[in-house]
Amino acid sequence: MTSDKSIAANRRNAQLSTGPRTQEGKDAIRQNALKHGLLSASTLLSMEDLDEFAAFSEDIRTDLGAVGEMENFLADRIASSAWRLRRAGILEAGILAWYFFGVLKDRAEAEARRHTSVAEFLAFVEPTVEIINAEEHARAEGSRES
Question: Is 17 or 95 the better-scoring residue by pLDDT?
Answer without folding.
Answer: 95
